[in-house]
Amino acid sequence: MSEIGLTWPKNFNEVPKAAFTRKDIYAEEMKRIFFGQEWHPVAHESELPNPGDFKTFRLAGVPLLIARDREGVVRVFYNACSHRGNQLETAVMGNKTEFECPYHRWLFDAKGDLVGCPNHRDFLPGFDKSDYPLAQPRFDSFYGLIFVTLSAETETLTEFLGASQNTLRELLGGDGRLKLLGYQKVRYDSNWKSYTDNDGYHAPLLHQAFKMLNWQGGKGRQFTATKHGHICFESALSVVSGPTVLKDASLIAFKGQDPAVGSRIVSLFPTFVSTKHLDVINLRFATPVDEETVEVHYAYFAHQDDDEDMVLHRLRQSSNLLGPCGLISMEDASIFHRIHIGNHTPGNAIFQKGVHDQSKLESEFLQNDESGNLPRWEYYRSVMGFERAEA
Amino acid sequence: MMQTDTTLESALDALLMADASALDSKDMMGWLANYSEEDEASYICRAAENSENGLALGFMYDDCRSRLEDRVTFVNDIWVGTFQDYRTRHFVQRVAYQRADASTISMRSNFSLFMTPTDSGITQVLAAGQYLDTIRLEKAGALKLLSRRAELDTSVLPRYLVYPI
């Protein structure tokens, strides 16, 4: 039983709206989920392709430094000096083989070793630089996608990903050899769960564009992976046929391979959403800021084997299609905000589409079923220790 | 000492104001009318953070006249009724300009942009940055944007975007 009181509805298709808005629940989520036994994607290795490249990122407020050393090895560090804890690197990205803390001039290499500190004869007797490397969280990677966990108890990354691995590998170009195109970064006025609950596939009714572009929905499969309730989609790509209102139809053209499974989404608990749709490869690194705010870094990629024309096509499509101002996703962003406002009302959010029996959980769904989110909610409930009401 | 071309400066400022005015009144056809009819007319809105790191991806990437026209269709037709509307106020200031050739001028301006969502009524800064413009001096004497890059200091937007910046 959780120390914080929230009675969960007896039906599996209902989620109490209070879970999205209460400060005490958010504080507990930090402990049980973000500092708990989950893996959090923080970068893809292709964001730092060259020796000395680095990226910084805040994961649930925790500052991280992800750096590639001279030999090409990528490591994750806490972005804080091992001396007094000063934020070490302030740039969001760049290239350095050494990181110097300006406070007392402690100097670290990209392996995290302390290689210099002035006046150390004045330090404690026996001071040894080798005792003060940059601290590191546990990290691991999957086809270049770098995950961090803030708990020593977390299962292996392979176990965590489970049956989502095939979909995720294919989404990462099949081999993870990606090339970074750039970022769209945004804060949404939305609880992190409202964001993840509504990103990915959902009712196409929202998207007027589909109708106006003569864009028919593709057939697809949605399934749950692992007890965490990760959600995977594999869908036949629907390509626009016939007239469209767009004068430049290349925005919605598909120039890649394999339209039979041309659309993939992997949504990993707790906050990560990734998608490959048309020729867009998009990893969304999301982190809660507070109970009312989530920050999402949409990172877009080409594949290293792309020719120049394909890179340009992906760049043009990525910039305009799926982000916080994309043709078929701007409305999603609006829904994140509006759902969060609506969640400040009593009662439960209710899932309907695809629910066959509200007393049972399923693991296979149709593409546009709402019910695909329910295993994740059951996992959330259990991690948070909320008891389900008696049937 | 170079002589200040007050007539040209007035015309450049008038173009800046016309763009700000069209955007703040949500007049997308008016926004489009500030751009050259040439095929390569373009509007790209991008975080300076991307540009400075050699990353070309933008928030909006309308790199030809057709895409500018499609941007009007997004706002006026496709997205109608799906978002929380917001007012904008652009504050624009010309910083520098130079003639590239007889018919082309490059200009750099600062902008700050306030937004006021209709539902909350609370005004906040949406973005700040620079416009990097290439301006065509057309035969009839009119100035039109051949290309505009809205280069945002704001690398993390405080909300989703509907209208160009």
From TrEMBL, chain A:
Entry keyword set: 2Fe-2S, Dioxygenase, Iron, Iron-sulfur, Metal-binding, NAD, Oxidoreductase
Entries under Gene3D superfamilies matching the protein: Naphthalene 1,2-dioxygenase Alpha Subunit, Chain A, domain 1, Rieske [2Fe-2S] iron-sulphur domain
CDD domains, A to Z: Rieske_RO_Alpha_N
The Rieske domain, residue ranges: 39-148
Transferase keyword on record: no
Gene Ontology MF term list: dioxygenase activity
SUPFAM superfamilies: Bet v1-like (SSF55961), ISP domain (SSF50022)
Presence of keyword Repressor: no
Highest taxon in the source lineage: Bacteria
EC number(s) stated in the UniProt entry for this protein: 1.14.13.-
Pfam families the record matches: Rieske, Ring_hydroxyl_A
Family according to the record: Belongs to the bacterial ring-hydroxylating dioxygenase alpha subunit family.
PANTHER family: 3-PHENYLPROPIONATE_CINNAMIC ACID DIOXYGENASE SUBUNIT ALPHA (PTHR43756:SF1), CHOLINE MONOOXYGENASE, CHLOROPLASTIC (PTHR43756)
Protein name in UniProt: Aromatic ring-hydroxylating dioxygenase subunit alpha
Organism (species): Novosphingobium soli
Higher taxonomy: Bacteria, Pseudomonadati, Pseudomonadota, Alphaproteobacteria, Sphingomonadales
Automatic annotation (TrEMBL), chain B:
Organism domain of life: Bacteria
Keywords on record: Dioxygenase, Oxidoreductase
Entry keyword annotation includes Oxidoreductase: yes
SUPFAM superfamilies assigned: NTF2-like
Record bears the keyword Transcription regulation: no
GO molecular function: dioxygenase activity
Entry similarity comment: Belongs to the bacterial ring-hydroxylating dioxygenase beta subunit family.
Protein name (database record): 3-phenylpropionate/cinnamic acid dioxygenase small subunit
Phylogenetic classification of the source organism: Bacteria, Pseudomonadati, Pseudomonadota, Alphaproteobacteria, Sphingomonadales
